[in-house]
Amino acid sequence: MRFRLTPRETSFYDMFAASADNIVTGSKLLMELLGADMSARAEIAERMRAAEHAGDDATHAIFHQLNSSFITPFDREDIYNLASSLDDIMDFMEEAVDLVVLYNVEELPKGVEQQIEVLARAAELTAEAMPHLRTMDNLTEYWIEVNRLENQADQIHRKLLAHLFNGKYDAIEVLKLKQIVDVLEEAADAFEHVANTVETIAVKES
To answer: Which Gene3D superfamilies does this entry report, sorted A to Z (predicted)?
Structure first.
């Protein structure tokens, strides 16, 4: 790692870790949604909404710290991009849960559970990786694995779309379910954006 003569603001590391831990909470709520009957979904959505608000607060705290810090641990643009991408993940997960409730979806199509499992694994990896930003050690396997998971998510998404358009569902139901699986795919993309930003930071700091 590059040697520095100037002190750095270290609270960013804790804030990134807190933001990633909150994403794990969101992924667990997604998993909970899978096994819930329709009567329980509104309460899960409410908890997801609270988690999303906590994510917003964490993101705003990072931006505030960024604007008030003269010296940062790495490039300001990378801090902004990392915080924004972490926030995007929570936004997409909350949107997916909200759509399931708003559209009164009786049964999610087969394959959505695989999408959510990928997101849950990516959330765990991201939460494990954030503390390593302090030293930039042991991060290579993280971004490689998240990129692999995103490729897996792409394949699952394509299969889901093929299933939705096979004639089993009516047109309105297809529109509802497609929007849900598309948002879950966007969450997977956002995890990859986080991993790519971490890789960029690590390369610059090496």
So the answer is: Phosphate transport system protein phou homolog 2, domain 2
**What does the DSSP assignment read for 76-103?**
HHHHHHHHHHHHHHHHHHHHHHHHHHHT
Structure tokens at 85: 């991408």
pLDDT, residue 35, reads 86
Q: Is the distance from CB of 147 to CB of 191 less than 8 angstroms?
A: no
Distance CA 186, CA 131 (A): 25
Q: Which parts of the chain register pLDDT below 50?
A: 1-7
The alpha carbon of 11 is separated from its chain's Cα centroid by a whole number of angstroms, namely 21
Kindly list the distances between the CA atom of residue 9 and the CA atoms of 78, 84, 89, in Å, as whole numbers in the listed order: 15, 19, 25
> Is the whole model's pTM more than 0.90, yes or no?
yes
- Three-class secondary structure of residue 132 per DSSP: helix
pLDDT, residue 8, reads: 53
CA distance 151 to 155: 7
Q: Are 56 and 87 in contact (CB under 8 A)?
A: yes
